[in-house]
Amino acid sequence: MKSRNKLIVASFAFGAIVAAAPVPVTTQSPQYDLLITGATVVDGTGSPGRRADVAIRGGRILSVGKIDRTAAKEVIDASGLTLAPGFIDVHTHADDIWERPKAENFVRMGVTSIVAGNCGSSASDIAAAFDRAAQTPASVNFATLIGHNTVRRAVMGTADRAPSAGELQKMKALVWKGMADGAVGLSTGLQYVPGTYSKTPEIIDLARVAANAGGLYASHMRNEGTALEASVEEALRIGEAAGARVQISHLKVDSPRRWGASGKALALIDAARKRRQEVEADQYAYTAASSSLGIRFPSWALEGGQTKISERLNDAATWGRIKGEIKELLAERGLQDLSFAKIASYRADPSLNGLSMADAAGKLKGSTTADAQLETARDMMLAGGASMVYHFMSDEDVHRIMKHPFVGFASDSGVLVPGAGVPHPRGYGNNARVLGEYVRVRKVITLPEAIRKMTSLPANHFRFKDRGVIKEGYAADIVLFDANTVTDAATFEQPHAYATGIPYVLVNGVVVVKNGAHTGATPGALLRSVAPR
Ligand SMILES: [Zn+2]
């Protein structure tokens, strides 16, 4: 690998983390800061578990094997528990990590590193974001992508057209700056304004800038249902033309009419990998998604910001046209109305949070018909929109995607505030749900495979070069869980519940979760890419 792809680590909790060389034994001081004994080590490579002790010093794993416990300052007896590398969540929206630095929903499900800036939306100034993150250290390691939507909005607003040569040049400069400031790649959100107005060549040009700086291309694709295959092909074409590694975000089949199409999407990924293209994907372990209410509206209706959106919705003829197109979009997907949609967070009237659109229409309009639901959606868009949970996937597709060896797990969540709204439960439960529901109960994949998909797989693809494996010299990001009981507790009805069966989580050798409770420690590091000069 070229040196420009290397990632450096800036610790902001206790000085620079350096790869620790073995320290000679002395009689005066213990050799290890911390020793974890008796656990079954599932090391993240996909190898089966084996009994071993793990010794930590200076934030690094110093030794794995049979280790004398008198050589340690502190010992955690982990008999009966499974020890794995801390989970790496490459698809998050924790862009304001410093606002809630304990990141408790993440660490309590075993996540020790997160990547923000997904779906095209990131901090506009990556250097400033890293500065803020450095001033307020977090409990998890933090990396970010630079978002296409953020860059496009800064240069072109929400214009529904191709960029001029000058605008494209400005966008390229912003992507270059983001990469130079330490972003790990470029993300797109091609179902959202304004990224949805871009064409493939624009994205190729911007992804090439990121690739030249060692970054990857992470894509929330243009369509995840009716045009799933074409959208996967577009992501692959962008990666190929730009010379960028590709991460397909939250891979799914989101339309009942297309259920089963995951096989075709995965076959496209396999064919690209056969051509030696570096492409991977991630998923969350649920049959529901979460997104904006606006995503159900035709993109032309969302151009120009809230004032223009309201003008269109308030004009009877234009609203009639919008409503007709929404119905068509639903019908194409095999959906009759909006009853598959539940309100996650609606600022204008939080009493609707948790209700399906049918129930909300019943409450507000006295009717649950498709028309009443669409009128309710119109009212909600006029009041600023809402975030939603969409129940429209099949178990079969989720399972098939999960079995693919190059699809990892990611939550698509931000740092959550307990009690706020009725968010998708993935932010509290995703990794624990994989280990409990999909490994232990449904046996879709094995435990070592699940761990590999949460650790070394994303670490390699994102070039977090000394994370994701339990190995001498690697960062001591470690999760201890009970493989017999680990489970997600968050449900769609009651999402604000932490995962259980995960008594210990360490980040850079510091205990962040102890006996199932957050210790308050914030030893997270900044994972910055190094761009060429
Ligand atoms: Zn997305």
How is this fold's topology laid out?
Blueprint: E1 7-11, E2 32-41, E3 50-57, E4 60-65, E5 72-77, E6 82-85, E7 87-89, H1 104-107, E8 111-116, H2 126-135, E9 141-144, E10 146-147, H3 148-156, H4 165-180, E11 185-189, H5 200-212, E12 216-220, H6 228-242, E13 246-248, H7 262-274, E14 279-283, E15 288-292, H8 306-314, H9 316-333, E16 341-345, H10 357-365, H11 370-382, E17 387-391, H12 395-403, E18 407-409, H13 426-441, H14 447-454, H15 456-461, E19 478-481, E20 504-507, E21 510-514, E22 517-518, E23 525-529
Parallel strand pairs: 2-5, 2-6, 7-8, 8-9, 10-11, 11-12, 12-13, 13-14, 14-18
Antiparallel strand pairs: 1-23, 2-3, 3-4, 6-19, 15-17, 16-17, 19-20, 20-21, 21-22
Helix pairs in contact: 3-4, 4-5, 5-6, 6-7, 10-11, 13-14
Bound molecules: zinc ion.
- Which CATH top level class of the largest domain fits? Alpha Beta
Number of E strands: 23
* CATH topology-level fold name of the largest domain: TIM Barrel
Count of helical stretches: 15
Which percent range describes the beta-strand content? 15-25%
Structural class: alpha/beta
Shape type? globular
First-last Cα distance: 17 Å
The second-level CATH architecture of the largest domain is: Alpha-Beta Barrel
Major sheet attributes = 9 strands, mixed
What number of structural domains do the residues give? 2
Portion of residues within helices: 25-40%
Radius of gyration: 23 Å
- Associated small molecules: zinc ion
